[in-house]
Amino acid sequence: MVTKSLMRQxxxxxxxxxxxxxxxxxxxxxxxxxAARDPAYFVTVARGSSDHAxxxxxxxxxxxxxxxxxxxxxxxxxVYGAPLRLEGAVALSVSQSGGSPDIVEMTRAAREGGALxxxxxxxxxxxxxxAAEHVVDICAGPExxxxxxxxxxxxxxxxxxxxxxxxxxxxxxxxxxxLPEVLARAVEAxxxxxxxxxxxxxxxxxxxxGPGWAMASEAALKFKECCQTHAEAYSSAEVLHGPVSxxxxxxxxxxxxxxxxAEQGVAExxxxxxxxxxxxFATTGLVxxxxxxxxxxxxxxxxxxxxxxVAFYAxxxxxxxxxxxxxxxxxxLKKVTETx
Length: 340
Fold this sequence. Notes:
With 340 residues, this protein is α/β, with parallel strands linked by helices. The protein is 46% helix and 14% strand. The protein contains 14 helices and 10 strands. Strands 2-1-3-4-5 form a 5-stranded parallel β-sheet, with helices on both faces. Strand 8, helix 13 and strand 9 form a beta-alpha-beta unit. It is globular. It starts with 5 loop residues before the first helix and ends in an 18-residue tail after the last helix.
């Protein structure tokens, strides 16, 4: 009997973690505070996978609420000590551990600068939780693998849920409530054909657009972290601005597309790269030259990316094991990274 990696076990726990987050019900109360502020814009504070969750939030806030969201470099406060004027803003800080000094310091600075501060963290008693005015426990539970999987999904979902509650978007709220069952199917999605192509150990691209680009960024990080493979994430539009020139025969490409307005364009770019000889896999039935990957659809363009990243995580764990790597303990990394 093959022992499951911690990463695989935690991927399988994602639907239950999402159920816990939804049952805890902390987000609607925080959303009321955000709605009362009626923010002119949002700023986000995060690093690593948490920053990809913030990129996902950025697109959700801009598409649903019509409010611009921008990432603030934590070093602005922690290294340079430069005050920011953030009156009328909501600052969203995301950290699984809630312990990195730079994230905590930037959150304090945002609060002093006039922003309403909200923290999403898996550690309720953390310094970050103490620094922010409102805290959401993302309910991922203990995560022992170095690679963040369930904590990323619940962070991204909490951020999306916040947007949905502020907007009182009934369709998005319904899709969020239905996610656990769809995510359970995503865990078992068969991406073995792509896994075999991605097991070469060279370089590859991950493409997406809009909210899907946030997930492409997360996927590229996991390829590097767990599979020791150099991967770069690009918007399916941005890849034309230079990076497309190195794509030739056999170059692996993973294109993440959900059921939103960008799906057709992502499919067209996947087919174009396949036409250059690349080995392209895409999560859409709109492709003709690229190979299609089956992935469940959630019924909403903003929840589909969460489904795609769960299916990807399962594939990445399989690629790591196929290469003889330990996905739970990547070289030179530890679970909690603290930066100043």
